[in-house]
Amino acid sequence: MTVIRASAWCGIVLLGFVSCSGDASSPSAPAPIAVLSPATVATPSPSPGLSPSPDPSASPSSSPDPSTSPSPAPVPTPSPSRTPCPPGVCEDPVTNDTPAARVTVRLYTVVNQDGELQRGYTQDSQIPVGYQVTVDVVAKDADGLETTEQGPLEFQFSNPKLVRVGGNHRYQRKLTVLKPGELIVTATLDGVESNPLTLHLGG
User: Fold this and answer.
1) Are 183 and 165 in contact (CB under 8 A)?
2) Is there a contact between 194 and 105 (Cβ–Cβ < 8 Å)?
3) Is 199 exposed, middle or buried, given 0-12, 13-18 or 19+ CB atoms closer than 10 A?
4) Is-contact 153 189, C-beta < 8 A?
5) Which long-range contacts (CB under 8 A, 24 or more apart) does 58-65 make?
6) What's the rounded Cα separation, in Å, for the pair 55 and 59?
7) What number of other Cβ atoms are within 10 A of residue 79's Cβ?
């Protein structure tokens, strides 16, 4: 067994040096051993100025921008067109308004129950029950020119029970045939009496 002398090593100091005691002849103490401590690594802290901030212009909008919404193009409203008249029925408008000297009542049109125009009817024709007859007044001045003289106009019917009278045209009346019989139609315009128009109903 090896005996360590008390004068050899007094003690070992682990963290810095070796301490000795004894005489001068004792061997010199070894040089202190440097203990390396780990270097402190600085943790980088984020710079406030370098933090990216959200771009408000890039954020999606929660509601659509009405200024960028496409608006529909205006569609022009078509002008109402005149109701076409059956060929041979419509006449040119009269612009003469001189006083009437002669008044004529005539058979204008005949339509069936479906409103279809029936051609070939005259005042001597038999008009079936349910058909509608339009009678028209034509006024002419002393020169024989048609006029729209605005005096009082009245229609007279010999047997009003045979027809139902309708229509709001100043110079016309629409007669719906209700019963068979003979109907005489006359008119008076500003005191001027018309010819008698005889209609044969219920044929």
Assistant:
1) no
2) yes
3) buried
4) yes
5) none
6) 7
7) 5
Residue 6 CB burial class (10 angstroms; 0-12, 13-18, ≥19): exposed
Q: How far apart are alpha carbons 18 and 191 in whole angstroms? A: 156
Left (φ > 0), alpha (ψ -120 to 50) or beta: where does 191 sit?
left
What are φ and ψ of residue 162, in 5° steps?
-80, -20
Q: Which pairing describes strands 197-201 and 181-189: parallel, antiparallel, or unpaired?
A: antiparallel
Give 59's strand partners: none
Q: Two tokens at 12?
A: 């070992």
User: pLDDT tens across 108-155, in order?
Assistant: 999 999 999 999 999 999 999 999 999 999 999 999 999 887 788 999
Q: Going from the N-terminus, what domains does the chain have, and what CATH number goes with each?
A: 1-37 (no CATH), 102-201 (2.60.40.1080)
How far apart, in whole angstroms, are the C-alpha atoms of residue 178 and residue 1?
A: 157
Q: Let me know: does 158 contact 202? Beta carbons within 8 Å.
A: no
The answer to whether 186 and 105 have CB atoms below 8 angstroms apart is yes
Q: What's the pTM value of the predicted model, to 2 decimals?
A: 0.55
Report pLDDT digits (tens) over 89-111: 566 777 888 889 999 999 999 99
